[in-house]
Amino acid sequence: MKENKSIPKTGVWKKYFLFLFFTFSVGLLGAFAQTKVSGTVTDASKEPLPGVSVVVKGTTNGTITDIDGKYTINAQQSDVLEFSFLGMKNQSVTVGGRTTINVILEDDTHLLTETVVIGYGTAKKADLTGSIGSVTADVIMKQPALSPVQSVQGKLPGVSIISNDAPGSTPSIAIRGLGTALGGRDPLYVVDGFPVDDIRNISSSDILSMDILKDASSASIYGLRAANGVVLITTKKGREGAAKISVESYVGIKSILKKVKMANASQYIEYFNQNQDVLGAYHLAPASEQAYNTDWYDELIKTAITTNNVVSLSGGGKNVDYFVSYNFYDEGGILDGQNYQRSTIRNNNTYKFFNDRLKFSQNMNISFSNEDIKPYGAFNEAYRQSPLVPTKYANGRYGASFVNKTTGVVGYEGNTGDEIGKLNSIGNPLLTLDNANQRRKTLTIQGGIEGEFKLTDFLKVNSRFGATKYYSKDRQFTDVRNAWLNADPRRTDSEFDALKEANPSVTTYANNSLRLEDIETYRWVWEGFLTFNKKFDKHTIDAVAGLSREKIGVGDITTLKGYDVPAKSQYWNIGMASDAYTNEVSQYSYTPRTLASYFGRIQYNFDNKYYVTGTIRRDGSSTFREGGDYWATFPSFGLGWTISNEDFMSNVKFLDYLKLRGNWGKLGNQNVPINVSQILTNPGSSNNNYNYVFGSDQGLVFGSAFGTPAVPMSWEVTREWGLGTDFTLFDNRLSGNFDYYNKTNTNAILKVTPTLNSPYEDNFYAHGAKVRNSGIEAALAWSDKFGDGWTYEIGVNYSHNTNKVVSVVPTYDGATGGSLADGEITKRLQKGQPIYGWWMLEADGIWQNQAEIDDPNNAKKGSPKPGHIRYKDQNGDGEIDDRDKKFFGSYLPTYNYGIHLGLGYKNFDFSIDGYGVGGNKIYNGLKHGRIDGGENITYDTYKNRWRGEGTSNSNPGANRDSYASSYFLESGAFFRVNNITLGYTFNDLVFSGSRLRLYFTAQNPFIITGYSGFSPEISGYSTDPTISNGDPSGTAGIELAAYPSTRNFIFGVNLSF
Amino acid sequence: MKKIYIGILSILSLAFLSGCSDFLNPDSREKVDAGDSDEVYTPEMFINGTYGMFTDWDYAFSYLAITDMVSDNSDKGSSPGDPGGDKQLFDDLTYTSTAGSLESMWKRWYKTIGRATQAIEYTESYGLTDAAYKNRLIGEAKFLRALCYFYLVRGWGDIPIQDKDLSTRAPKEEVYAYIEQDLLDAIDVLPAKNEYASKDLGRATKGAAQGLLSKVYLYQSKWQQAYDYATTVANSGIYGLEADYGTVWRASTENGIESLFEIQARGESIAHGVQQYSQTQGARGETGWGWGFNTPSQNLLDAFNAAGDVVRRDATIIFRNSTLWDGRVVGATENPMYNYKAYSSANAGSDDTDKNIRMLRMAEVYLIQAEAANELGKTSEALTALNKVRTRVKLANVTTTNKDDLRKAIWNERRLELAMEHDRWADLIRTGQAAEAMAKAGKTFVVGKHELFPIPNKQILEVPTITQNPGW
């Protein structure tokens, strides 16, 4: 481990932090009888520098400067004092008999000193030829979230994160664009060298740094899984020195960020009746005669509390460094009863032998989570359910959409002969919540041990073994009786009992059902590698070569389902299920996946000016064993030129650092779906077209057919090239980088719906498309100080990405997706468009009168009525059908940007962070879907609707059709203030060296968006772990039952001593 | 000390290096590997699966629309308020490229072709040692494939040949050549009808392939070949006409002397036939047993009456308030006429009935022989063949020797003999009578457009390089 790279950039308090750190890191004073030397260390602007290490060269005798930059050290006349401070240039001063030595340290560029993790090693950022985005612990900690990835939204150009505010959820992340539809879309996560699937088991406060390998030349060291980028997470370790205790604690209050105003009772009635006018059906009575005016969102959405508590202990000695932490995270959801709790225990130790020549590092992380899951469908129901329906009736039953059609009063009551019907088929969201009783508990044990042995001063060998054991227990209890009774308030228990008796063993009339699902998985990885590092004159060579073996997915899943267990949760045992019903049992073992890999990398530079990096990885994956095509090779190279180190640049004063980079590489994705060549048969059944009849006696014979072709699958291979530059200017106050990339998935896998004229009947997977992402990334940061103790920093980053399907196998073109609940489709994969771009009819005004509709020159879809949306006849054939559907861009943002402002004054720190995206479109599926006309609408829909000829030519009337069209497609652009934080740090409170920081953070306090729904950030996340996150052919970008964005106010305390 | 560590690490590395191929072959656990499976799929099962396609529901509804309802022989039927999806559009000749019936049949035939091709490949690679058996299976599949291509090419003209290029339409000559080749191959290897074991009755035979090939030649006006193959079938000694026309579509004559090829069905449990074929066309109303679609038209009735063709009229049309041959009283049904040929005595309106659908029968072969002979100037042979068909239904012999008059007589004979047997529309198009016939039936036939069906819109959306037929 090289120098701690988590050292923050600037800001006064950070220096204090360092000061504290070094206080414990550096050994105690030696015991020689020597002269006392003292002095003050300042920076160029005469600001005292606390925490500067002052060491007598060649000894362990050292100290650090105090809060005022002062130090005192015993030294002999001939001694040389070395002053070092991260981010500053080192200075050596000979004592020579002086007793006061004041030193001014000069700033050093961060780029030169910052260390990043690059996979099987670390490198100075200045030596990179690729593009790596790094964030440090303080950035992650500042924006608390379950997933550290969500915390860095908007911090790294080229890393697009769609956050999800549901408890226990993971954000969807795309590094340099989305290149695959069905192959794994997630980046590879590597924690302390060990690949993992999920990082929710890791406490954010245990993370020292997160490095994201964005480009091919960096990522190709992880070859077969690197196509979506690689996220390297390094957890904290102890450091030699006295024990240090750190306590972090915060509490947050979470509420919905953007509420949509729904129509109230009278508005709903007006809208409803206008629709009924068109249909020629009954009317609702005026609001004054109705009993209820329910605001469903008020009833549904709660304010939630999130708490997080961390205690950690770290330190180290000559032989052992240790880090131990405990974290309890408790996140409430805005739905009643929704909750996610997680405890983690981490222990990272390093054991050192033979003067550090041999080291063993051991990591262990145990994480328990306990999740109460509630269906997001409740959000959808709250949107659609009529405000006239009560939450509960007087008899205690949940409200349902019954209406007395005779009197027009909403309710189930009426006189004899009154017709009781329903307003709509929407459920009661509160009943949905009440009846959903799902709890998932997981236990993840993750650990590894690594041995490192220095063979010579330039050659070391590492060997490491890591494993993860995961247990998940999911319990779902469904109160069938309760659901049945609440479907109609007139139903009685005795009716249910009668049905139950009449239908024994029919599970529809069981009192309840209990479903248990146990999953157990195990994975391990072993890696060994040799590292060579030597400098010959002006040549520097770093090289690594190694091999790895990995086995994933060893385990099984067991599902049990029983009926009629006792009602109290303490008795929810399958063993107590009623014998009257058949228990359902399913168990199978997973087929493990194995990976074997060889890798090597050489980094060479000449005189810190010219850089060459070459990487090669050869991977074998058991995924492809059916085809026998196990192996593939993924090479890459990168070139760099540090222009600022050239002699001819020495006169350019304003330029501190300038580097040009170029790279090319090939990456793979082995996480792809595999065709199971299915043979269809259905012996004994008549109703199929496999079987046939032959013979004089007309005997039934069985036949079979291939459902899917056995199209062999292989890696998705991505080729990428890129150019970039890093620079710092004006005495390192301005730093930035600029990157261009061009990344093509050369054989993206598609789920192919066979064309009508193809031989195949069922959908199958095939390599069928080239998907290109190309774009730019830019980041600029300025930091400076002024006046008396003020510091400030401004950072902006911007990335632009163009996603395009460059080619598709002709007969695979046109796969559709984005299916809405009512069967309308909204997306299509086609050459020249973004992957699964929006594809639908174009709204073209409103039919104003019947004469317009009857005009044979006007093309129409179905049989419209005045007030319906008109659709544009794109091909002018006088008909509106699929041929008139048009592409309307994509749900994928074309650009996103982040800004950061920081201000420090003495012990105060203040910062604002913002994040925005643009160029994308969101389909408002909530607004779209009206099944039976009795659903509620938003206030805006009510207010802006067409009410008769000439009233609106853009918004449909109360009676409308339900085709997917551009009317429901809205700009998904938004700018959100992510984070406003104000903190104050007390130093040396009670103990010298202690540090206490109090802070207040507002997460997502404001959003600016034109989108009319709840959240323009729709990741397509599902609580069902088998549904992958953000499938572009699914509901990503469609708001149907998405979890709304939340606002979170946090107050926190960090204490360390 | 150092050496020990290096040694340990090297050994560890070597241990992992060796046995790599085993390492990458973890045991399959979720799915039984093919080698470990007890299940054996024989080539014959895949051939059976290809036949099975012909029992699909599409043949009970969509097929009726694009063969009969669209023609002058039948109407949509059923209640006026039940359009049967797009069926009324066919009856009115106003269908478009989005018509579901066209899409269904287009797809059904291509999927059947797919199954046939896969069955052939599977059979070839399976390792059957009995060459004759193996060849027979391949011959059966080729026959079925040819049949589907024939339906496609006569409906749409130029069409993609599936195993060549899915994205471009091959000229129809090329498609016909493909069909001919499949049938010639099939003729070479298929047993004659009387060479099959009793349990295999209903499989494609040499005679079926020859008969179909003669029809394929007829559609290309290759008179000599059409004549030759029809004559070969006629002279094979295997086939002839049933004595009573009324029994031709009854269970009693299934796979009988007149039958070259038919879709097989059983009505006993487990019943399996063309799903709902008898039901969709069954008489509708309180006394009925079906949905009442595809009803014989007044135009057809008039044609029977004009020809004085009582026997075939009464065997083709169920009349309201009549009594059927099996004693069933029809009663006051909703429509005046229904398709008698779809009627199953034993199972009436069940989902799956015992109704075998006659795809190709000897009477048609005689008519092909007659038509080809007439075109070749073999007038007396033409008259002989034609009159065989007429004699059975107690109609007087045709005696004209005028080529044009005889041609017209044969065409009309085809109409009456094969009425409601899903041949009329294609025959009208083939013979160029469609425009005139449609005008008489009160429908607007656009010359240059309606000769071909529109390629289904969905197919063009999926594969934009496939062009649309003229006028659509």
From TrEMBL, chain A:
Residues 853-876 are annotated as: Disordered. Residues 393-1004 form the TonB-dependent receptor-like beta-barrel domain. Signal peptide: none annotated. Gene3D superfamilies: Carboxypeptidase-like, regulatory domain (2.60.40.1120), TonB-dependent receptor, beta-barrel domain (2.40.170.20), TonB-dependent receptor, plug domain (2.170.130.10). Residues 125-230 form the TonB-dependent receptor plug domain. InterPro entries: Beta-barrel_TonB (IPR000531), Beta-barrel_TonB_sf (IPR036942), CarboxyPept-like_regulatory (IPR008969), Plug_dom (IPR012910), Plug_dom_sf (IPR037066), TonB-dep_OMP_SusC/RagA (IPR023996), TonB-dep_OMP_SusC/RagA_CS (IPR023997), TonB-dep_rcpt-like (IPR039426). This is TonB-linked outer membrane protein, SusC/RagA family. It comes from Dysgonomonas macrotermitis.
TrEMBL record, chain B:
GO terms for cellular component: cell outer membrane. Residues 1-20 form the signal peptide. Keywords: Cell outer membrane, Membrane, Signal. Residues 337-472 form the RagB/SusD domain. The lineage of its organism: Bacteria, Pseudomonadati, Bacteroidota, Bacteroidia, Bacteroidales. Its main location: membrane. InterPro entries: SusD-like_N, SusD_RagB_dom, TPR-like_helical_dom_sf. Belongs to the SusD family. SUPFAM superfamilies: TPR-like. Residues 94-218 form the SusD-like N-terminal domain. It is found in: Cell outer membrane. This is Starch-binding associating with outer membrane.
